[in-house]
Amino acid sequence: MALLLTIVTCIAYGNSYSGGYVLDDARYLELDQAPDLANLRSRLGAVAAGRVRSVGNLSFTLNYLLIGGGPQAFHVGNFLVHLATALVLFDLVRRLLAAPCFQERYAAVAAKLAFVVAMLWAVHPLGTMGVTYLIQRYESQAALFYLLTLYCIVRSCLANDWRWAAAAIAMCGLAVGTKEVAVSAPLLAIALDRAIFAAGWRELLRKRGWAYVGMVIVTAYVTVKLQPAFEEGTTLHTSVSGADQVTRWEYLCTESQVITYYIRLALFPYPLCFDYEWPIARQFSDYFATGLFVVGLLIATAYALWRWPPIGVVGLLFFCVLAPSSSFVPIADPAFEYRMYLPLACIVLLCVIGGYELWLRSSDAAQQSLRYLPIVLTASVVILFVGMTLQRNRVYRSAESVWRSVVELRPDHVRAHHNLAKILKDDGRTAAAITILENSRARIAVSGGSTAAIDIELGEIAARTGDFREAQQRFQNAIDELAERKSRNSETLRLDAEAHIGLGALWQQQGKHAGAAAALIAATQLRPDRYPQAHGMAGVSLRELGKLDDAEQQLGKAVSLTGPSQPWRRELGIVYFQQGRLREAADAFEDWRKQSPDDLEITLRLAWLRAAAASDEVRNLAEAKQLTESLIARLGPQLLLLDLAATILAAEGKYAEAAQLCEKAIALQRQQGGDLLSMETRLQLFRSQRPFQSAQPDELY
């Protein structure tokens, strides 16, 4: 049976290996974006320190080192985790149904029923998101270790072996270290032990109490880490229209709808959608029926724990695994299919056992005619699920196919249209992106929604294609619409800031620096400390306007908010240079050249400072000579470099050579028709055997 389960699961996911990185995958699995991926020592240290999701991160590192990098290797790793979970589920259910309390009823068919449960769960299309969407290995691996925790407890109960109990502690630690959905593992282990094995609480604590204490301890750290999330929750974010802050009560009511829908998908998995963009239930009529249904299920679970504990434990597992994401803690998106990865097993188990009980209750005559009905039904459902799973695997081949599937399923899904258009735009298919965005904008406008995000995206496309008038109009439309809103939530402020940044960048590109600076500064005031690039760009425009003190303030803010690789330290150095603060300018240029040694303009500015600055603290002839030689090697004997070289020769006391080289530079300048005054002034100094030194920025560059 285990071999057949493996073969069928391989068939169901046989087309899942050809997909690439989708959406968040590259951010965590592409070595260029996640260099820590290959750092085994760092990942092991994170596990030892008990950091949230560190075991999940370690899994990807081991995948990279043992199987290889790239999407195909990670797909293999995800499938192996899923297959292992299915096999553990099979043996766990088999041993439970063969336990002493079920021996008379299920012992003879325990393996067969467990096989059906594991098979239906393994090929169920609702589980594909947890397998084929690479980054959701956190969910599937947490489920694997969660089931292994219960499995080890069951083995410990059956054999009364302390080693299995110790293994349960280890598995529990790995589960909560993979993803926080496993924080309920100790509770479920205790409930399972009491419901099926222990005759009373005293026996449970006497035999395995130490194991449960250990399991609680290893989950304590993650629970503490999650405390801020439980206290604050999050704002509901959408990439297009935005939404108001979600209260805990509103989220809880919304999740009654979501859980009801999850159950419906478990029983009839169509249609499946990557992104449901589930609306928040704010009216009593929105959640009354589903809330009543879920409350009824909770009451039924509590009653079952009292009267039929094994059934109650299954219901408890369903709700406990969903609780972190589907209760009262607001999360950015209320509904995602991967959250049903492990809870799905609970529904499948109840359906299989319930179906078997109904079949047993048929009359003897009917049993003869219906003898093969369970086999036929199981085979039919498995074949159907395999086909649906193969189809869902194709959806996850690329980000474009993901969003196209959502658009085809839900034509009014604004976020899907928006994200698909961004993919097409980045891929150079601008016309197709514009068509999708325009259609989406029309639908939003008809429904009275916000079109600001669409206008921002269309403005960025217009700016990229050189249609500055259209781009300006789009950005201004977004700004005007958002200004009319009475309520200002985080999403509204984000869109407003991005519209101002787009308009500011557009004006800066056109040389309209006054308007650019005003728009960019407005963006920084809408969301302080969120947009260092806006501070930096505003500083550049202010510098062009001659407002050096204001430029210094904006660029200094950009530097404080970003790392050394960003260009704002460079731009701030130029401001220092223009202010006559030559020592600070030289320090800034030196810092920048460590990040970008091929920046020729900054190299030239620094060479002039080291060669001719009036201050002894700034001047450094050896460095100036080295910088100049590197520039000549790169660019050849150009006019500015000849002038600079002459200045260095004079500073070294080689006045005749300096004058000769300066005369050559003057001759080249005459041919090009430029200003000769500064070089002629230096020539007179060299002829009178004096070096050129100055504290005036315009004389040094």
UniProtKB/TrEMBL annotation:
InterPro entries: O-mannosyl-transferase_TMTC (IPR052346), RgtA/B/C-like (IPR038731), TPR-like_helical_dom_sf (IPR011990), TPR_rpt (IPR019734). TPR repeats lie at residues 566-599. The keyword Transmembrane applies. Pfam families: PMT_2, TPR_16. The keyword RNA-binding does not apply. Keywords: Membrane, Repeat, TPR repeat, Transmembrane, Transmembrane helix. The chain crosses the membrane at residues 73-93, 143-162, 210-230, 287-306, 313-332, 338-360, 372-390. Residues 62-222 form the Glycosyltransferase RgtA/B/C/D-like domain. It comes from the Bacteria. This is TPR domain protein. It comes from Blastopirellula marina DSM 3645. The lineage of its organism: Bacteria, Pseudomonadati, Planctomycetota, Planctomycetia, Pirellulales.
